[in-house]
Amino acid sequence: MFDYYTTLVFLHVTSAVFAIGPLFIIIPIINRIRNEVEVNEKIYLSIIRVIIRIVMHAGHLLVTTGVLLILFGPWPWHTSWVVMTVVVMGITAVFLASGFSKVLREFGEPHANKQYILKRLTFTTWIYIGLMLLLLWLMVQKPSFW
């Protein structure tokens, strides 16, 4: 018999992996950009943009399957870990939408301080990874705050 809930859980976990895993590739790419000529910088920046796109689309699937799991699962929307997950997820969505694209856009400006921008990109990546790990903790541990 086909179990829809188990399939949703599988899709949810897989999308979580794709929403956080590729971010760990960005850090070594940033380190390579620091020492590269401008031609290779563009290639590495294209790779970073693809990674961000993968993370973004995996996040869409993550949210969709998460909503479906709450709708069809045993937890009500007012459960404390669900509420906290939605709050952190909202912060993460705003951060991803503004953080990465803004920093990457600045990199292409003519007189940009590339070392400063790379430092910000690294910081942005680690903050986003931290937020995603917090979301993973909330989903796995399901702590009770109230």
Q: How would you describe this structure to a colleague?
A:
By secondary structure, this protein is mainly α. It has one domain. It is 82% helix and 0% strand. The protein is built from five helices and no strands. The N and C termini lie far apart (38 Å).
What helical percentage do the residues reach?
Answer: over 70%
Class from helix and strand fractions:
mainly alpha
Give the DSSP E fraction (strand runs of 2 or more residues): under 5%
**Mean of residue pLDDT values:** 86
| Unreliable sequence segments | none
Q: Supply the number of helical segments.
A: 5
Report the span from N to C terminus.
38 Å
Rg over alpha carbons: 18 Å
Number of domains: 1
Largest sheet: none
How would you describe the shape?
A: elongated
What is the count of β-strands?
Answer: 0
Query: What sequence of helices (H) and strands (E) makes up the elements?
Result: HHHHH
In short, what is this structure?
The chain is mainly α. It contains five helices and no strands.
